[in-house]
Amino acid sequence: xxxxxxxENQIVFKFxxxxxxxxxxxxxxxxxxxxxxxxxxxxPLRLLMREMLINAVEHGCHKNPSLCVSGLVRRIAEMRYLVxxxxxxEGFDYxxxxxxxxxxxxxxxxxxxxLINALSDGIEFNEKGNSVTVxxxxxxxxxxxxxxxxxxxxxxxxxxxxxxxxxxxREVLLDLLNKGYRKISFDxxxxxxxxxxxxxxxxxxxxxxxxxxGKDSSLEIFNASEDVKRLFEMTMLDKxxxxxxxxxxx
Length: 250
What we know:
Layout: E1 2-7, E2 10-16, H1 19-32, H2 39-60, E3 68-77, E4 80-87, H3 112-119, E5 122-125, E6 131-137, E7 144-149, E8 152-157, H4 166-178, E9 183-187, H5 196-213, E10 218-222, H6 226-234, E11 242-243
């Protein structure tokens, strides 16, 4: 069962609780909902919706195709959206949820709602706990440029490194790892904020670099603001990255 209806400023949907139908819904939303396919701005909304839908299918309906997941995505202001997802399961005690995103890069479970919380402006549950409404305000996407300099590489960020740019950032880092770079620096001049999702990406990079190259590796953060430097110190990432207020030395 799969149904998607276009209405003014919103799309209403309902489908059987099957994982494969999540991909179909996201694909069809890209085709019919204005802007939804825009890679630069709408990636956080798609990621948020996917996490909500996965929770509904997997945890709410326990992948039982005789049950359904329904909801809507509505534009409520310029670049601001409301998403509601409801399942036909028994609900759960949402009041006991832990929204903190684990700093353990090896932990793959219990990341759904922390990620939803990181991406959204607010989360509301119904009393039963089988329906969740999330608000999200989209921002201009952060871009990353890569500049090769001899045996090292410099990554320049055009803005903050947060959950909204995490997919793009991880793709850049994975490409650098696959190419075998040992010396990587990050120009943070335009970075005002780094959230827990962004920090996780730096942690994963550092661990992979150390495992592959050990003491032959070099990681540096430069042109960092006092707030960014303080964040790296508080999270002890300054033990893995050289932090500098000036141009990188790698």
